Amino acid sequence: LQDRTFLDPDLYSTINVTKLSDARFLQDFEPGEFRENPNPDSMVAVTKWSENYSAILMARKQINKDFDGTEKLPEFALDIKRQPIFDGPLFYDSETSAGMYKRVFADGSLFPDYKSFRADTYHQLSRPGTYFGWLSLNPHVGVRGTFYEHSGFTQDGFKTHSQTQTVIVPEC
Q: Cα-Cα-Cα-Cα dihedral of 103, 107, 111, 115, to 10°?
């Protein structure tokens, strides 16, 4: 089932649901589709689009129990497109997302499912320009911050108490 409905000129919903009878259906009956996407997922999203930004609220669920997948229940993403600051030479853009993610494994897998909340944000300043009439440069500086909530799954396989991790990486 696939559908895209425009609720407004800049607001639309997207539905993509793929339920397969078995793990080999695409390989046996739709080899072209199998080569492009051997593990189709199902998702529902609402997108708000503007010349300056886009915002997406999405949910992704793995309804085919014969496949591994990452579920997003839900995820929100906001992308601010590159734009000048106060009509000056500096430009700003950013990407921010947050959601509850769940890693699910196929039925019969030896691996346990696990989940975690994740928030990620990236902000960048840039000053593009053309010099000497032929040299284009775009110096930029950015910062990214990522937060992961505990997943209850560790490298040694034992469950632990609540843990948080924050990573901030400057970029030049």
A: 20
